């Protein structure tokens, strides 16, 4: 998880971990956070819904995997503020997940959404903490039949593409294996 030159004038210690559902991306991100040796703050973007037993079970499974010494911050929509508030240089902030954050803000108009993305980019660029960003890859499947599904897929895909170059490492986790795209791939 070394530092890599992002461009000639900026270094980043952010890490992007992407993958499909149930690929192991959260577990990989948790491993990276643990290996960082820093104080970890887990920033959860999920909203709890006591009426949805399956969703509650998924959230609980994530909680059970986290060490007790990690603190948890819930930031379903105010991710930028959480990064600023908790982003000390001695910390690792694990954000799980960008897809849920996008879904929580799906009703924003395009101009409002672009403003939020620009704010998030600025915070990611300025944050002194090690950031580990978890994101779902949704564009490999069928084109969504409904406009809101296409909006979600397009917004998340574009967000990942914009954040990727800002990160020192970009991992694709699939089938339980993590591939370091920063070493294997070429920027588009």
UniProtKB/TrEMBL annotation:
Please list the GO biological process terms of this entry: cobalamin biosynthetic process
Q: Which InterPro entries match?
A: CobU/CobP, P-loop_NTPase
Q: Which reaction does it catalyse?
A: adenosylcob(III)inamide + ATP = adenosylcob(III)inamide phosphate + ADP + H(+); adenosylcob(III)inamide + GTP = adenosylcob(III)inamide phosphate + GDP + H(+); adenosylcob(III)inamide phosphate + GTP + H(+) = adenosylcob(III)inamide-GDP + diphosphate
What does the record give as the active site?
Answer: 62 (gmp-histidine intermediate)
What keywords would UniProt list here?
ATP-binding, Cobalamin biosynthesis, GTP-binding, Kinase, Nucleotide-binding, Transferase
Provide the function of this protein: Catalyzes ATP-dependent phosphorylation of adenosylcobinamide and addition of GMP to adenosylcobinamide phosphate.
Name used for this protein in its record: Bifunctional adenosylcobalamin biosynthesis protein
The biological pathway it contributes to is: Cofactor biosynthesis; adenosylcobalamin biosynthesis; adenosylcobalamin from cob(II)yrinate a,c-diamide: step 5/7; Cofactor biosynthesis; adenosylcobalamin biosynthesis; adenosylcobalamin from cob(II)yrinate a,c-diamide: step 6/7
Q: Which SUPFAM superfamilies match?
A: P-loop containing nucleoside triphosphate hydrolases (SSF52540)
Q: What is its EC number?
A: 2.7.1.156, 2.7.7.62
Instruction: Detail which positions bind GTP.
Output: 19-26, 44-46, 63-66, 96
Q: Name one Pfam family in it.
A: CobU
Q: Could you give a GO molecular-function term held by this entry?
A: ATP binding
Source organism per UniProt? Thiorhodococcus drewsii AZ1
The entry assigns this protein to a family as follows:
Belongs to the CobU/CobP family.
